[in-house]
Amino acid sequence: MTIKLLPETLINQIAAGEVIERPASAVKELVENAIDAGATRIEIATAGGGKSLIRVIDNGGGMTPGDLELAVRRHCTSKLDRGLDDIRTLGFRGEALPSIGSVAKLSITSRVRDAENGSEVQVTGGRAAAIRPKAANPGTIVEVRDLFFATPARLKFLKSEKAEAGAITEIVRRMAIAFPHIRFVMSGADRTTLELPATGDDRLARIAQVIGKDFEENSIAIDAEREGVRLIGFAGLPVFNRGNAQHQFAYVNGRPVSDKLINSALRGAYAETVPAGRHPVAVLDIALDPALVDVNVHPAKSDVRFRDPGLVRGLIVGAIRQALSADGDRSSTTAARSMMAAFSPGYRPAPRRDWTAAASPSRPFAPAPSRAPAFGEAAQAAFGEIAEPSARPATAPPAQAAREAQAEEALAFPLGAARTQVHENYIIAQT
User: Fold this and answer.
1) What is the pTM of this model?
2) Does 307 reside within a domain?
3) Where in the sequence is the domain holding 258, given as residue range(s)?
4) Which of 39, 70, 72, 69 is nearest to 57 (CA)?
5) Is residue 266 domain-shared with residue 375, that is, in the same domain?
6) What is the pLDDT of residues 200-228, one digit of tens each?
7) Which element (helix H / strand E) includes 153?
8) Do 138 and 252 sit in the same domain of this protein?
9) Helix, strand, or coil (residue 174)
10) Residues 162, 20 share a domain
11) In this structure, which of 23, 117, 198, 283 has its CB flanked by the most CB atoms within 10 Å?
């Protein structure tokens, strides 16, 4: 068996197996190209979970006909000038467009700002057609149809259209946080239109667009530096936690990453403050010399390797713990609003059945001397006094009568009188 050079189309399909794992991977690569091109507005449209259609439109610098011809060839890029030790762009491998074109029907239309017309190239299953002129606005339009039609076995491993559309949304959300000066618009048959207006340099405002305004009120600014490595971002209060880790956003020099070291350090920083099974909310960006981190670990470029992982971990844990300690025991405004609403006069808890204890073999159940009112009755009685102050007696009862009433209430309510309920789980009692 002799060794031979594989055809270019087959090489690209092999590369696509790692670079383009699912529709969200293609969207990520195309959005990264738009950002590297200097775009300030990026529109993403999808259909069929990205399998039927992916369209990315940007107002970036665009490409000349010569650049467009090279863009669909493997290992052709304008972003890698100084080597792998000084990568300052999101893309650098020159594999995304040829990989997509090898497994889908790819169309690219682009125009530089000082050109009269644009140019278009079409690639179907790895076969590129000739460049032809086409009217276009400055910028680039990339359209991907029938993703994985050339490798149908890959389609069997994709999730439902809804799940794939959700993965695309998550990719765009993470990119949007890293680049608040860019306006992102998502549309298409998969979703209702989602628009994230540009916020300039105000990253917290963009974070509020993505995560929610509650995070702005329940977070602490992080800004720490150690031995040339800087950590900036926002860490949520310990009580402002979630049931999953989807609201944890990590970046390295502005690049969205999913790194085990960063995730582990974040868990360690909140280890003593967030309950087991809950996850903190945080947005962290690590800024350091590109020579101190390797972003070429995987073609997806989501994994990184730090030259000094201990330094990075110590910086994350120390900075977050110090910020939380300096902020004190500030409570979540979300929980506080729910609590205040529960105490408001107009609040009425849902009716509940009276609870009856079962007899115990070692200690038979004995009812209280007088029937304790149900929780709803006690709450309504308490809130009735607050809502109708005029119904109170003009004079207070004698001290002796008050003490006797308190004693009787203590006997009837050994754990305190129920006053209200929060989140349908916690009962506020008064002793």
Assistant:
1) 0.74
2) yes
3) 214-331
4) 39
5) no
6) 999 999 999 999 999 988 999 999 999 99
7) helix 152-155
8) no
9) helix
10) yes
11) 23
- Return all residues near 4 (Cβ < 8 A) that are at least 6 apart: none
* Cβ proximity of 304 and 263 under 8 Å: no
- List Cβ neighbours of 302 (8 Å cut-off, separation of 6 or more): 256, 257, 258
The H or E element containing residue 48 is none
Q: Which of 93, 83, 78, 72 is nearest to 19 (CA)?
A: 93
Type and span of the H or E element at 89:
none
The rounded distance, in Å, linking the Cα atoms of 158 and 193 is 24
Measuring CA to CA, how many Å separate 62 from each of 38, 90, 408? 9, 17, 82
- SS3 of residue 329 by DSSP: coil
Give, to the nearest 10 degrees, the angle between helix 260-269 and helix 309-327. Answer: 30
- Rounded alpha-carbon distances, angstroms, from residue 205 to 54, 197, 208, 353: 28, 10, 5, 45
Non-local CB neighbours of 178 within 8 Å, separated by 6+ positions: 251, 254, 255, 256, 285
Residues 6 or more apart whose Cβ sits within 8 Å of residue 268: 313, 317
- Do 395 and 410 share a structural domain? yes
Helix (H) or strand (E) holding 64: none
Q: Which residues are 127's β-sheet partners?
A: 124
Within this chain, do residues 164 and 120 fall inside the same structural domain, yes or no?
A: yes
Which pair of structure tokens corresponds to residue 243? Answer: 């049931």
pLDDT tens digits, 314-370: 999 999 999 999 876 665 555 555 555 555 555 555 554 444 444 444 444 444 454
Report the alpha-carbon distance of residue 41 to residue 138 in Å, rounded.
12
Q: Does 304 reside within a domain?
A: yes
